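sry for the spam today, last one i promise. struct tokens for design, 387 residues
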């Protein structure tokens, strides 16, 4: 196990009706807030009205900026930064999923910065400061409610890039599983894939003697495997929704990565897909994982065999661990298929004519991944394997 420092100060407020605490929580950071949200699901569900009421009761004035799209765009971020400066806004409330939260984070780091906010995403410039950010989470998926990451798409060139800093963790996240009852099956499914992906990116590591975090990862994956089919059948099953919602945070709040080095190639490979084809991030991941695994499993057959046995209950074949490893990969693919989502590029209607461009963009800052280092040629082959 490697040495590590772990600190995650996001306050989690979890359970039924917790959105009514929003005003009280955000008022700790000032009385004027940017209320940031997406394309309208919060108005349809009635959540918007409850949030406005809670802010009013706490004496908080809200300046609104809705319209965040999945795979959030830089242009709206710039609009948000201007709006905050114009109104002297000192804190942000993000009501929605990863896209809204990431957009809010981008605005929050852009306001105190004198340069162009894209610097943080394109050059890896260090984030020193972010406006205090509160979250009301409506979809368990990206884990942005307590992560230090933000992923933004620059429409100019279709670059989807991330900024990361411990200074970008939200101050609090309000998580009421009931708010996720309205999720369409597709969003539930691709959200589950993203949650599992955040675990798997950390699971496939070259660091030895990480049994404790291996087992935390396996428990999180098993929780997803059990509960996702339940909520697809019963969207308003509170208990199963609650398991998934908490798993989404734990999967990406950095606890599972303590003492180990994660891989993250599959995320890099996927971001090129969602940047160009605007597919949901989890939808892209469901396609890229089986392909990545098939390309790299020989690097550590034992770890893949462990994944197969402990996560997917594959019977170990001690004389042929490669067979066990491959059965694990097939189990993962079968599970994603059972959620009703495509696991190939062809199935998702994505053509093969831009693989070279995507592989080039994905590796422009150097090889991808830590478990296996992937050069441009490797990434291109992985796209082909996903066809
Ligand atoms: O926009 P509205 O109308 O709200 O609809 C949204 C959106 O269309 C809808 N939705 C959300 N909650 C709902 C709901 N519909 C009905 N009922 C509800 N309760 O779901 C759609 C998808 O929302 P989005 O926020 O895009 O989903 P997600 O949370 O999966 O976020 C995806 C983004 O997060 C990034 C991804 O790349 C992608 O851009 N990621 C961010 C990370 C981070 N910051 O740490 C890490 C991840 O790996 C990921 O890359
Ligand atoms: Zn992700």
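last one done:
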């Amino acid at each position: 196990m490697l040495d590590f420092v772990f600190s995650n100060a996001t306050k989690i407020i979890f359970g039924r009706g917790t959105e009514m605490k929003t005003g009280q929580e955000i008022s700790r950071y000032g009385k004027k807030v940017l209320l940031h949200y997406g394309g309208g699901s919060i108005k349809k569900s009635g959540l918007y009205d409850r949030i406005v009421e809670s802010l009013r009761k706490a004496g908080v004035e809200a300046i609104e900026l809705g319209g965040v799209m999945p795979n959030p765009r830089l242009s709206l971020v710039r609009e948000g930064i201007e709006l905050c400066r114009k109104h002297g806004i000192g804190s942000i409330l993000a009501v929605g999923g990863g896209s809204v939260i990431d957009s809010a984070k981008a605005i929050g780091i852009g306001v105190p910065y004198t340069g162009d906010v894209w610097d943080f995403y394109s050059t890896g410039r260090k984030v020193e400061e972010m406006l205090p950010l509160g979250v009301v989470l409506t979809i368990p998926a990206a884990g942005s409610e307590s992560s230090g990451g933000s992923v933004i798409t620059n429409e100019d060139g279709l670059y989807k890039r991330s900024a990361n800093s411990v200074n970008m963790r939200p101050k609090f996240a309000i998580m009421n599983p009931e708010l996720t009852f309205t999720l369409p099956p597709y969003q539930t499914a691709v959200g589950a894939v993203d949650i599992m992906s955040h675990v798997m990116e950390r699971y496939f590591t070259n660091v030895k003697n990480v049994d404790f975090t291996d087992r935390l990862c396996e428990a999180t994956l098993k929780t997803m495997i059990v509960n996702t089919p339940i909520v697809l059948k019963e969207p308003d099953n509170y208990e199963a929704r609650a398991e998934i919602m908490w798993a989404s945070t734990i999967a990406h709040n950095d606890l599972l990565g303590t003492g180990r080095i994660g891989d993250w190639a599959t995320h890099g490979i996927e971001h090129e897909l969602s940047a160009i084809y605007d597919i949901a991030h989890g939808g892209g991941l469901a396609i890229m994982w089986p392909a990545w695994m098939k390309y790299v499993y020989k690097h550590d057959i034992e770890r893949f065999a462990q994944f197969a046995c402990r996560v997917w209950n594959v019977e170990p074949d001690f004389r042929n661990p490669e067979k066990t490893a491959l059965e694990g990969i097939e189990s993962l693919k079968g599970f994603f298929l059972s959620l009703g989502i495509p696991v190939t590029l062809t199935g998702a209607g994505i053509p093969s004519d831009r693989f070279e461009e995507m592989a080039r963009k994905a590796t422009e800052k150097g090889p991808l991944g830590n478990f296996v280092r992937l050069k441009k040629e490797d990434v291109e082959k992985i796209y082909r394997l996903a066809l």
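The first strand starts at residue 11 and ends at 14. ok im logging off now
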